[in-house]
Specification:
Number of strands: 0
Order of helices and strands: HHHHHH
Structural class: mainly alpha
Distance between the termini: 61 Å
Number of helices: 6
Radius of gyration: 16 Å
Largest sheet: none
């Protein structure tokens, strides 16, 4: 199987993500999608850790597209990412930071569900 096809098989939301049309003034979303495409086609298909990261990234960007509140928070947080100068793979470090933003958002946005009881 071709490596690109194998990578796309791990990315269930690939076409939804790359075909997403952001607002005209939304430059950040365009950059995030470009980073997504660049990263997923750069990974080693035989490395299980890379494949898991691609699956997570695909899930996170799907959430980014679907959830407006997450998108706004993600855009604020992504501007604060700092990558060390001596990092071997800057793109990989950026992806790790993006995933951390998602997990922090998930922790902070847990909703308390209150079920009222009718008498």
């Amino acid at each position: 199987m071709d490596t690109n096809k194998k990578i796309i098989s791990y990315c269930k939301n690939f076409y939804k993500i790359i075909n997403f049309v952001p607002y005209e003034s939304d430059v950040i979303t365009e950059k995030i999608i470009a980073i997504y495409k660049k990263y997923i086609f750069k990974i080693d298909v035989n490395n299980k850790e890379d494949l898991e990261t691609v699956k997570e990234l695909d899930f996170v960007l799907n959430k980014y597209i679907d959830d407006f509140l997450f998108r706004k928070e993600f855009q604020k947080q992504i501007l604060t990412i700092k990558v060390e100068k001596d990092a071997k793979d800057i793109l990989k470090e950026l992806i790790k930071s993006m995933l951390k933003i998602f997990y922090r958002y998930e922790e902070s946005s847990t909703r308390v569900i209150y079920i009222s009881r009718w008498i």
